[in-house]
Amino acid sequence: MSEVVQYRKIIHIDMDAFYASVEQLDNPDLRGKPLAVGGSEMRGVVSAASYEARKFGVRSAMSGVQAKRYCPELLFVPPRFDRYKEISSKIRKIFLEYTDLVEPLSLDEAYLDVTVNKMNNPSASLIAQEIRRKIYEEVGLTASAGISVNKFVAKIASDYNKPNGQKTVNPDEVEAFLEKLDIKKFYGVGKVTAEKMYQLGIFSGFDLKQKSLEFLEKHFSNSGNYYYQICRGIHNSQVKPNRTIKSIGAERTFFENLSSEVFLEDKIISIANELEKRLQKSKIAGKTITLKLKYSDFSLQTRSKTLPYYISDKNLIIDIAKELLYQERLKNSVRLLGLSLNNLNNQEKKTSEPIQKSISVQLQFDFKEK
Q1: Where are the beta strands (DSSP E) in the chain?
Q2: Phi, psi (5° rounding) for residue 349?
Q3: Prediction pTM value
Q4: Looking at 52, 103, 109, 276, which residue is catalytic?
Q5: How many CA atoms lie within 13 A of 347 on its CB side?
Q6: DSSP code at position 29
Q7: Catalytic: 73?
Q8: Hey, what's the torsion of the CAs at 216, 220, 221, 227, to 10 degrees?
Q9: What is the pLDDT of residues 246-256, one digit of tens each?
């Protein structure tokens, strides 16, 4: 009797141009027009771009000046995070109608484990289709989905038929799917790593698969084993409903570049006030304070200090942030200043509470879906 292989069914839902789509949903005058959320044509960085703007090459993390250069008709609107959170909450409620195993990655994307689901539907593809339809009917926005045996492949697949589409990668299709993929499409392979792989003759998943574990560990250190596994479709990370917050921060982009530490001191105070509010809301404290500086040439610098005790009080944060500010001279005028708290006490709280085991039930079924 042959052994029945058991697979998980994972869906990755990714909202289409979420921030920009919410703005176009709320303001009909913006629909069909190239739109950027965040920044401006003079200052700041684009947080999100509508698909109409993306056709011109406008992307998130691009400066407003560059975005306007690419698309002279580009419209800018300020972000409304309270509104995005409100919409995100409605979408998450839809997810929870199907499974309690929902792992949000951000306001606009999440993993769902529907191996066992509340609808008793054996087809993950049909569940994804139904969720996308519900989101559109109840919220008015489109979403894309990827469906496969693990989180890694599902995330890649969700980008395959964007916008407003989905793709299923069945177990017997995983390796072939990854072999054909450009290495820069692999989740976890950034721009710098992709360039290094190109130099080593690795251009696709197939090329990566030809490299030995020893070769990958030699050139990519601890990440070598990860790359060795993922090109074979091996990724055992479970969908975790309660992800631990690792960092809380706040930052500001200035209307004019600031060239003196004296001017930055005032900004530190306002940013620390916001950071304290976020810490209090999450009921979290931390030991490591990081000061982030983005200069006028867009280069980044961070300065950190770790304390022997947890803090969340803004006055302590301000004192240490000022100490970090004067740690060395500014390299250039500053366009963005940020403060964040890491090394948080939420992990400690978690382990002090009674341990609740998550029981994963694996059923025997045929994953193949049309």
Answers
A1: 10-15, 35-37, 48-49, 75-77, 102-106, 109-113, 143-148, 166-168, 248-258, 286-295, 300-311, 334-344
A2: -60, -40
A3: 0.75
A4: 109
A5: 9
A6: G
A7: no
A8: -60
A9: 889 998 888 78
